[in-house]
């Protein structure tokens, strides 16, 4: 419902989920994976609705549960990725740390996977040059790696690769590689 943009239904569903979580907290504590999946979804919901500071607290709770009960689970990597995305607005260093940890864990658990590519793209986005003094080299490296994983997964040319291609092209433009920039932007 969230992905198709039905905001009203999404809000209603998340409210119902919140009530169910509160009413069944004991059952959730017995199943840490379910609790983490709920907490991650709820934190994302709060973040999208721009509730200040609350998403960070919910992500921290999910990460505590993961560290104690799901230390090598891909869902822990997913929480790290989404928590890192949330941190990029407040603490870039913490965002990089979490996304790098997510990348390592996804690599260990899943290998070359869509979520691995997403971590690479998100690291690149954190390094993405915003002004004339920013160095695009790190961003170029991570965008290239993300696109390589997407290509291996036969995802190049799909909607998930568009923003990566666009930003990779803009980085090439920043370093004066206009032909490559044009090719990448045209492909995007």
Outline the fold blueprint.
Elements (H helix, E strand, L loop, with lengths): L6 H17 L1 H6 L1 H17 L5 H16 L4 H14 L4 H19 L3 H14 L9 H16 L9 H13 L3 H10 L1
Helix pairs in contact: 1-3, 3-4, 3-5, 4-5, 5-6, 6-7, 7-8, 8-9, 9-10
What percentage of the residues does DSSP assign to strands (E)? under 5%
Rg measurement, Å: 18 Å
Tell me the structural class: mainly alpha
Averaged pLDDT: 92
Helical fraction equals over 70%
How many strands, which pairing sense, and closed or not: the largest β-sheet? none
* Distance linking N and C termini: 26 Å
**Total count of strands:** 0
Order of helices and strands: HHHHHHHHHH
Tally of contiguous helical segments: 10
**How would the global form be characterised?**
elongated
Poorly predicted spans:
none
Question: Which key features would you list for this structure?
Answer:
0% strand, elongated, 188 residues, mainly alpha, 10 helices
Can you walk through the features of this model?
- This protein is mostly helical and 188 residues long.
- It has 10 helices and no strands.
- α5 (74-87) runs antiparallel to α6 and α8 (137-152) runs antiparallel to α9 (162-174).
- It is elongated, with a radius of gyration of 18 Å.
- The two termini are 26 Å apart.
- The model has no long low-confidence stretch (mean pLDDT 92).
